[in-house]
Design goal:
With about 150 residues, the protein is of the alpha+beta class. The protein is built from 3 helices and 5 strands; from the N terminus they run βαααββββ.
């Protein structure tokens, strides 16, 4: 069953604030194998002009993808998550994510398409800090593979 086209433009409420911790940044940088000292050493980050350590650019995926789950779980949309694969990811930053940021994500469905029996869903996540200032926009493309014929 195709996804409901009327959902294009639908915006979901902001998530609860996520507080960015120093240890979470360190663990993430270690997990992706990025030894950039700006992610673990406050003095190295300050030497680059940051007030404290910053997060790797893909760090926000964890919170934007979690926010997109509200979209995915919306029963009216008609998405069969058992057939979903992650198709693409893009980020556009205003500033880096920093230790101590309290970030919220507001998800909006930007596009719903069908191609060769596959459903394609584009979700934009606007990430803002505790002052409402824009930090980053993340675009997530999800592809629900066509159902197999029995």
């Amino acid at each position: 069953m195709a996804l409901d086209q009327s959902f294009v433009g639908r915006t979901y409420p902001p998530t609860a604030p996520y507080e960015v911790g120093r240890e979470k940044i360190r663990e993430f940088a270690e997990a992706i194998g990025d030894a950039n000292p700006a992610y673990t050493d406050a003095e190295a980050a300050k030497a680059l002009g940051h007030p404290d350590v910053i997060a790797p650019p893909t760090f926000v995926f964890a919170i934007t993808f979690k926010a997109a789950n509200e979209v995915v779980a919306d029963p009216g949309l008609g998405l069969d998550y058992s057939r979903v694969v992650h198709g693409d990811q893009k980020f556009a930053y205003t500033r880096p994510v920093r230790v101590g940021d309290r970030l919220t994500v507001t998800s909006t469905i930007e596009a719903v398409k069908s191609l060769a029996g596959n459903d394609i869903l584009d979700v934009r996540g606007e990430v803002r800090d505790e002052n409402g200032e824009h930090v980053v926009t993340a675009w997530t493309k999800l592809v629900a593979r066509a159902a197999q014929e029995a």
